[in-house]
Amino acid sequence: MTVNSENDYASYKLADGILIITYNKDVVIDLPAAVYVVKERLSIHEGRTLPVLCDVRQIKEVNKAARSYLSIEGSILVKAVAFIVDSPVSEMLSEFYLRTNKPTIPTKAFNNIDLALKFSNQYNE
Description:
InterPro entries: DUF7793 (IPR056695). By secondary structure, the chain is α/β, with parallel strands linked by helices. It has helices at 31-45, 64-72, 88-101, 113-121, and strands at residues 3-6, 10-15, 18-23, 28-29, 50-55, 61-62, 78-84, 107-110.
């Protein structure tokens, strides 16, 4: 089953039991945006717990309130999170998030999509 959806912040693709979220170019994630993204994600989950792969390479900024919200509410129905990073900015954002928000689920950052998918598949039913 493949499900596709998109909004002003990101596009979503559910395929082979992994939800892939690709954030739009130069998007700024504040608290209202984070709430919206999580609400959209939960509608795709349809009550199932899934691994999530987040491509954060093009995000411009995620503010503190959004990071806090995503570390708690953003973990609902999520088995594990793999971040895709490449630029020093996206890598710094993910490292900062992991260090300061201490997610309660397995969470790792990757420069390589194949490695991120391999990590995600460990948590796939």
